[in-house]
UniProtKB/TrEMBL annotation:
Species: Friedmanniomyces endolithicus
Chain positions covered by the region annotation Disordered: 122-159
UniProt xrefs under InterPro entries: Rrn7_cyclin_C, Rrn7_cyclin_N, TAF1B/Rrn7
Annotated family: Belongs to the RRN7/TAF1B family.
Keyword vocabulary terms for this entry: DNA-binding, Metal-binding, Nucleus, Transcription, Transcription regulation, Zinc, Zinc-finger
UniProt domain Rrn7/TAF1B C-terminal cyclin: residue ranges: 231-398
Cellular component terms per the entry's GO annotation: RNA polymerase I core factor complex
Subcellular location: Nucleus, Nucleolus
Native organism taxonomy: Eukaryota, Fungi, Dikarya, Ascomycota, Pezizomycotina
Name of the protein in question: Uncharacterized protein
Residues annotated as domain Rrn7/TAF1B N-terminal cyclin: 80-208
Length: 535
């Protein structure tokens, strides 16, 4: 194409822009000025036309067939929907959740898409209308390019903020299990995704390459999420999506199945059965339920208690501190049959929390965050099974066996097939490495810990009427210590808080603050009860 600058020696020619010459629907074909010659009877010498062939055919194909606007957004939604289905199949086939989960989450996904009706095109739109909508920014009269660019960037940012992403898929999976009353926790989904078991990182690997190539870069980036972050982020996203369903569709969500969840936690923490009854009684006494606080203000001081799972864990910790305090003060039980008749050896409990070599599964996948932090120093000091885990992670997250048939990469397609055939990839996803000490399942480990803790329980003395001049024995609940900051914890108490925070899906500091707020609430109820007795 001839340059649009002035050329000396050529008369009776003028320069016009595509906006002045071609229809709006075809304006995208031209980007520079075009020379138009008038018929003056002069002999016109036409130059030769030369077509430059792109050496990479797939670049041309991608540029021609790539989507934009509403069509690209629809294509992206199909890709996210495919990832969501892969997540559901993993939950059903690996974690043995009911088949109804897929149908239920599919309906929830349809409700989620109801909010996006204004951002998708319809089949009744003609291609001309669609092109006119896509390229309307090129024919807005005399508006400047800078104004248009700033306006489009502003609205594009708003659209991306409301675009469904892979956090939405995790939240939808959780809401589906909640409606089915399954004892699945937010912390479970966070751990499975962080470990690379549940499809989340490199979700584009679950999308066909032909679908990925047609997506704009901004949507391809959404299929390659960065670090999942803390579990609180997923808690917030779940609660936000629930509020949206409740506001727009009037959906009422049930409370969590707290008896089953409480039973799970007691086994994981190796706690005596008395804690189950104490936690349930304390929750009823304080009038605390385990439903989601959809009406609470976002960002409040006690926002961590808006989530029912941390709320339940905070009450469990308070009940444990009441029945089995972490200090060394001798306390007496009120009767031989009461829940406080036994004492707990916290030193023995803390020793059980240190992982034993037989608990280590050499074939377990390496967590995504840990793999990214793996440095050269870690490589030098890593054991054989740790190197196997890291290489497996690289193989299934960085290396690719996709063979492109077109373009410059297509020239080496046959060589790549031969090379990949010589070094096949395992389907299981991890190197099978036998642990010489013999690995045990998590169920067996939890049962063994619980047996050891039960054997270490000791009986307390029963409170007797004090004799003359004798100091009365301290009862259960006396000398109760409230912890406000994480720095005040030490020994078995610190280990217990950390383990509880991990199970509840909170950070260590947030768990300490949640327990403190429950303790303050319990203190106010106690003061109110004492005041009522005096009156």
């Amino acid at each position: 194409m001839v340059s649009s600058t002035a050329i000396e020696g050529i008369s009776n020619r003028k320069y016009i822009t595509p906006r002045q010459l071609i229809p709006r629907s075809q304006a995208n074909r031209y980007q520079r000025g075009t020379i138009v010659a008038e018929n003056t009877g002069e002999y016109v010498i036409a130059g030769r036309k030369a077509r430059r062939r792109d050496p990479s055919a797939e670049t041309t194909t991608s540029r021609v067939s790539g989507l934009s606007g509403p069509r690209a957004f629809e294509h992206y939604l199909l890709a996210v929907q495919l990832v969501l289905r892969k997540q559901l199949r993993w939950l059903i086939e690996t974690k043995k959740l009911p088949e109804e989960l897929e149908t239920l989450v599919r309906d929830l996904w349809a409700l989620r898409l109801q909010r996006l009706r204004t951002r998708v095109s319809y089949d009744s739109d003609t291609e001309t209308d669609t092109q006119s909508h896509f390229f309307s920014s090129q024919s807005e009269g005399e508006a400047s390019a800078s104004d248009e660019s700033a306006h489009s960037r502003k609205h594009r940012g708003k659209k991306i903020d409301g675009t469904p992403n892979l956090l939405d898929t995790l939240a939808l999976c959780y809401i589906g299990t909640l409606l089915l009353r399954e004892p699945v926790l937010v912390a479970d989904l966070h751990r499975w995704a962080s470990d690379g078991e549940l499809p989340y990182y490199h979700a584009s690997n679950n999308v066909p390459l032909s679908m990925q190539e047609r997506l704009p870069a901004v949507y391809q980036e959404l299929l390659e999420p960065k670090l999942l972050g803390k579990p609180e982020k997923l808690h917030d996203h779940v609660l936000s999506l629930m509020r949206s369903f409740n506001t727009e569709f009037g959906m009422a969500l049930p409370p969590i199945n707290h008896p089953l969840i409480l039973y799970r936690w007691m086994k994981a923490l190796a706690l005596p059965i008395e804690i189950f009854a104490a936690t349930s009684r304390l929750a009823r006494l304080m009038d605390i339920t385990f439903a989601f606080a959809l009406d609470a203000k976002p960002g409040a001081k006690n926002h961590m208690l808006q989530y029912p799972e941390p709320r339940l864990m905070a009450i469990l910790i308070v009940s444990t501190k009441l029945l089995f305090p972490f200090d060394d003060i001798e306390r007496a039980a009120y009767s031989g049959n009461a829940m406080d008749a036994l004492g707990m050896d916290w030193s023995a409990w803390a020793e059980l929390q240190v992982p034993h070599p037989t608990e280590r599964k050499a074939s377990s996948p390496l967590a995504y965050a840990k793999a990214l932090e793996f440095s050269q120093t870690d490589v030098l000091g890593a054991a054989e099974h740790q190197l196997d885990q890291y290489m497996d992670w690289c193989e299934h997250n960085i290396a690719s066996e996709d063979i492109r048939e077109r373009g410059k990469a297509g020239r080496d397609a046959d060589f790549r097939r031969i090379l990949f055939g010589m070094f096949p990839v395992r389907e299981a996803g991890a190197t099978e490495h036998e642990d010489p000490s013999g690995s045990r399942s998590r169920e067996e480990v939890e049962t063994e810990k619980l047996r050891v803790v039960q054997a270490a329980l000791r009986t307390r003395s029963v409170i007797q009427p004090p004799r003359k001049g004798q100091t009365p024995a301290s009862g259960i609940g006396s000398s109760y210590r409230r912890i406000r900051t994480a720095g005040e914890l030490e020994g078995p108490a610190e280990v217990f808080y950390e383990r509880a925070a991990e199970l509840a899906g909170l950070s260590f500091e947030a768990m300490v603050m949640a327990v403190f707020r429950i303790e303050r609430r319990m203190q106010r109820l106690e003061e109110k009860a004492r005041k009522g007795i005096r009156d």
